[in-house]
Amino acid sequence: MLGLTNMREDMEYISGVLDEMEAIVEDASGVPMRKGRAMVDRTDLLTMLDELRGVLPRELSEAEAIRRECAAVVAAAEEEARRIVENAHERAEAKVLDTELYRRSQRRAAEGVERAERYAREIKGGSDVYQDRVLGQLESWFQDSLVSVGESRQELGSSPVRRSPATAAEPPPEAEENGQGWRASSA
């Protein structure tokens, strides 16, 4: 209770000093042509500020020191908490890698990749077969077309043209060029 009484007396004294400072400022002479400005005796004002500092409760400076200590403790606690969480994440990740569920999921993933690769090989093989079949059909169609052209020439009275693959690129001996890049046969 004694500390509370001392504190109350200190607060009353501080209030009185502040009132005196206010009176000094209010009673100060105004500066001509400067609204809101006044001339104050610097010595009186500084003396009163020193008195205020001397009377301020010691608890205020202690409170500031405690506040700084508290901020340092909080910062250290936050850093420690961050390290603990990071360590827990690392340990949890390591434990996940050791679980049977993880190993099983890795095996299933590898099996899925193998199935996909096998399917891709089957598709490629099927496309090769399809490609060969289509080219075979085209070749057969072209051969049938050549036979049909040969038969048509025979019906029209010209001699049949039978070309071997080696001589197919050469024009027949009876063909002549007509000046437009075409070759005309004697038929």
Summarize the structure in words.
Strands 1-2 form a two-stranded antiparallel ribbon. Strands 3-4 form a two-stranded antiparallel ribbon. The longest helix has 56 residues. Helix content is 73%, strand content 4%. Among the domains are: 56 residues; 36 residues. With 187 residues, the protein is mostly helical. It has 4 helices and 4 strands; from the N terminus they run αββαααββ. Helix 1 packs antiparallel against helix 2.
Q: What are the key terms here?
A:
187 residues, mainly alpha, two-stranded antiparallel ribbon, 4 helices, 4 strands
Q: Count up the helices.
A: 4
Q: Termini separation (Å)?
A: 138 Å
Major beta-sheet overview: 2 strands, antiparallel
State the order of secondary-structure elements, H for helix, E for strand: HEEHHHEE
Q: Catalogue the unreliable spans.
A: none
Number of strands: 4
User: What's the average pLDDT?
Assistant: 79
What share of residues is helical?
Answer: over 70%
Strand fraction band? under 5%
Radius of gyration: 54 Å
Lateral strand order in the biggest sheet: 1-2
Oligomer: single chain
State the shape: elongated
Name the structural class.
Answer: mainly alpha
